[in-house]
């Protein structure tokens, strides 16, 4: 209670002082600059009193605004030069995850591309339907995963091996004649439904199409590639619950004779969703 009263008094003082400065300055730019400076100074004063916490590397924080995740919860929001740090603090300061271990992590969801189906459906948790491939990384049932960045890739994988390379475009060296038809996937849309709520009704697949300046020209060389540059920032973040109903689907326009799933002998073509964000161990809402 004492901490709340201290915070309320400090917050009111900062607000009144900022308002006074805005009134005193005739120039809007100067008024805004001075008011923001006072507000930031007040925030740092509150951290000194241990009333709120501000992470290393952050410019400032603001309190009580809508959350940066798909649940739209309020809390301490961080203005940081590092996007991932701001996302981390959003979850770390959420009372729902008090005492939970939150770590940087990733998910890699894979599904086979077939010629007779223009929908790609991705399983999200361990034990859900189809057998996991050796390179797939799904979510445990008791955990939650906050997607901060997301990428889509094509993969030509030899049967029984895990040596295939991820491609952010239909690479003709790896996909051969199928490459032309695989372009259709990037004219489709991604949808994510969680517990029967459409969190992402439709998201254009063109956003994931990244053709490198230097492209692979033969089996002995590679595309120019940086994983971080191939991932798309998601705002708001999307929370996948290991024990929830997560429906992730890509729908794309197909045509008669579509052969994007036709791979070389001993290979299969896969669609891959690669998510980076934060694993909240034991964070499932249903445990």
Give a verbal description of the structure.
The protein is α+β, with helices and mostly antiparallel strands and 287 residues long. It has two domains: 2-100, no CATH class; 102-281. 23% of the residues lie in helices and 33% in strands. The protein contains six helices and eleven strands. The protein has helices at 2-24, 28-48, 83-92, 172-175, 179-182, 227-230; strands at 58-66, 74-80, 101-112, 119-122, 144-158, 166-167, 189-194, 197-204, 232-241, 246-251, 267-281. Strands 3, 5, 6, 9 and 11 form a five-stranded antiparallel β-sheet that branches. Strands 4-10-7-8 form a four-stranded antiparallel β-sheet, with no helix packed on it. The chain has a two-stranded antiparallel sheet with strand order 1-2. The longest helix is centred in the N-terminal third of the chain and has 23 residues, at 2-24. The radius of gyration is 24 Å and the shape is globular.
